[in-house]
Design brief:
647 residues; alpha+beta; Threonyl-tRNA Synthetase, Chain A, domain 2; BirA Bifunctional Protein, domain 2; 4 domains; 8-stranded mixed beta sheet; 33 strands
């Protein structure tokens, strides 16, 4: 008999060799119907994999990320099986599950191009194969046999992957006539896949290398119920309407230029106003929390990034060094702000009394992203981080974490990100050799993060083995209006850079000590945060933040002077207003300004000009009646005060 420990701490005994499915059946028949995969001592495996010794077990359903992963991983193999039938001679690369669905990189036979018009045929074939309820069978295979098997089938990309694998750790999964090189995990059979949708096709370089062949990447998603797919497609349509690239163009927030360069966003006046207002908001909060603002160059000597380790990490795949007329003088575009901030810390001796030192910068950094990976503001080559670095003593880590958590929660509240999750990433307890720093300082930092979350009432999920090699961290994931998860705020402890830069402070004992460095970015990057904010709000920003609060619409050109007079008055009262004095009918002006998501529209004509009033329309609510323009300005400022005073 073996002991199985469940997440709630309860323990049951089973015969050795019991499977996850049998455990689920012993609990309830309903659970057995719903369970998709099984976690055994932290490893996700198939439900029919025998468990032969005492273990901690978690049963994953569709609602769990691990359950979806197994479902979509198997669906990727199902799509490959369908394409193998539809396109004989196709070669296969990799087919992973992703956050929403899965994809497969394939090399179609010569002369074959997969287009959107082919999607329906692929979907039909996938469902036809799924209805056969084909078992998904795992097999361990030697490296030589794997090379022979895939080589005989002309799968050169698979053989290249096999060459990099260690013999004795290679497995395949087979369903029907399709066999794939894979570690798993998978469903037990394809029968639970009831609905599929091929969503997109694009190109991708093999193994992400621009010098390698360009493959076809087919994206899809699948569900255990047709109703779920219908709901997802409705969500997808709403997501298209909220696409930050579309709304950014409509609202004239940002642009890209091929001449300037791919992945290099340029902020237009309205977008710049939005972004600067966000920056000013955070600067005011940071000042309250004792941060000092700094500014550092956009470039740095190559040696700076060699010292920090960023050159080894980014150098090969980043923008190449800039050479000056002086021999052997090399600079690099700044990939991170932290090395510069380490130099600011090191420029003069520090005492324990000087700590914590909190320095902040809205610093623009540059990282090379492949053309195929660029996407609006969410994946760019130039972005600005709301970076801050806290240099503190080990005993100050907990308090600093609490303070940063407070800042992040203020920002989420002010921008209506009401639903968010937190994840604490700790060391792998079974493999501590890969982390730098002593056990003592790690335990102190890990406990500080856990205690800080408890003190703030934050129910954070703990993930072992997810810490960076240089320290534990706390990440915040927000859910937007469509329920999509985005990682935004992050707080990371770092023992690596203080060591690399030989940072010191003099302690109470008059001895030299290393400070702990905390990286902190509530927004993450301004570009990505603005993209998420645009899609979350569909461009309907809070009144305090929106670039234009009021659009003044004269009903004819006779009232343009009155409209301009109002605009000048509002400007004096710190109300952001524009005048739409185009020679268009008032209905057209209203529709166009609603498209620009301007919260208030003021219609002015003969009566309003004579009475010193405005006729007010509110976005999404329609006519609000007439009022004196001075009273309207007071109303706007009162609304903004009520919003911002909360934070």
């Amino acid at each position: 008999m073996i002991k199985i420990t469940f997440p709630d701490g309860s323990v049951r005994e089973y015969e050795a060799g019991v499977t996850g499915l049998q455990i689920a059946e012993s609990i309830s028949s309903r659970l057995a119907q719903d369970v998709l995969a099984c976690g055994v001592n932290g490893e996700i495996v198939e439900l029919n994999r025998p468990i032969n010794e005492d273990a901690s077990v978690v049963l994953y359903k569709w609602e769990d990320a691990e359950g979806k992963h197994a479902f979509w991983h198997t669906s990727a193999h199902l799509m490959a099986e369908a394409m193998q039938e539809l396109y004989p001679g196709m070669q296969f690369g990799i087919g992973p599950a992703i956050e929403n669905g899965f994809y497969y990189d394939v090399m179609p036979p010569a002369g074959t191009v997969i287009r959107e018009s082919d999607f329906a045929g692929i979907e039909k074939k996938m469902l036809e194969l799924a209805q056969r309820k084909e078992p998904v069978v795992r097999a361990e295979i030697s490296k030589a046999d794997a090379l022979k098997f895939f080589g005989e089938r002309g799968q050169t990309y698979k053989n290249e992957l096999i060459e990099d694998l260690e013999d004795g750790h290679i497995s395949t999964y087979t369903q029907g006539a399709f066999t794939d090189l894979c570690r798993g995990p998978h469903l037990m059979n394809t029968g639970v896949i009831k609905a599929v949708k091929v969503t997109a096709v694009s190109s991708a370089y093999w193994r992400g290398d621009e010098k390698r062949p360009q493959m076809t990447r087919v994206y899809a998603i699948s569900f255990p119920k047709k109703k779920m797919l219908d709901e997802y497609l409705t969500l997808l349509e709403e997501a298209k309407k909220r696409d930050h690239r579309k709304i950014g163009k409509e609202m004239e927030l940002f642009m890209f230029s091929e001449r300037v360069g791919k992945g290099l966003p340029m902020w237009l006046p309205k977008g710049t106003a939005l972004r600067l207002r966000l920056e000013d908001f955070l600067k005011k909060i940071q000042k309250r929390y004792g941060y000092q603002q700094v500014m550092t160059p956009h470039i740095g000597g190559k040696n700076l990034y060699v010292t920090s380790g960023h050159y080894a990490h980014y150098g090969k795949d980043s923008f190449q060094p800039i050479h000056t007329p002086e021999a052997d003088e090399e600079y690099m575009l700044k990939p991170m702000n932290c090395p510069h901030h380490c130099e600011i810390y090191a420029w003069k001796p520090r005492s324990y009394k000087d700590l914590p030192l909190r320095i902040a910068e809205f610093g623009t950094v540059y990282r090379y992203e492949q053309s195929g990976e660029l996407h609006g503001l969410t994946r760019v080559r130039s972005f600005t981080q709301d970076d801050a670095h806290i240099f503190c003593r080990p005993d100050q880590v907990k308090d600093e974490f609490i303070r940063v958590m407070e800042i992040i929660q203020i920002i989420f509240g002010a921008l209506n990100f009401d639903t968010f999750e937190a994840q604490i990433s700790l060391r792998d307890p079974n493999n501590r050799e890969k982390y730098i720093g002593s056990d003592e300082v790690w335990e102190e930092a890990e406990n500080a993060i856990i205690e800080a979350c408890k003190e703030k009432g934050l129910n954070a999920k703990v993930e072992y083995g997810e810490a960076a090699f240089y320290g534990p961290k706390l990440d915040f994931m927000v859910k937007d209006a469509l329920g999509r998860r985005w990682q935004l705020g992050t707080i990371q402890v770092d023992y690596n850079l203080p060591e690399r830069f030989k940072l010191e402070y003099t302690g109470e004992d008059n001895q030299k000590h290393r400070p702990v460095m905390i990286h902190r970015a509530p927004f993450g990057s301004m570009e990505r945060f603005c993209a998420v904010l645009i899609e979350h709000t569909a461009g309907h920003f809070p009144l305090w933040l929106t670039p234009d609060q009021v659009a003044i619409l004269p009903i004819s050109e006779k009232f343009n002077d009155y409209a301009q007079k109002l605009c000048a008055y509002f400007d004096e009262q710190d109300v952001r207003a524009i005048v739409d004095d185009r020679n268009e009918k008032i209905g057209r002006k209203i529709r166009d300004n609603e498209m620009k998501r301007i919260p208030y529209m003021l219609i002015v004509g003969e009566k309003e000009a004579a009475d010193g009033t405005v006729s007010v329309r509110k976005q999404g609510e329609g006519d609000q009646g007439s009022m004196k323009f001075e009273d309207f300005a007071k109303k706007i400022n009162e609304e903004v005060r009520n919003m911002t005073n909360k934070y």
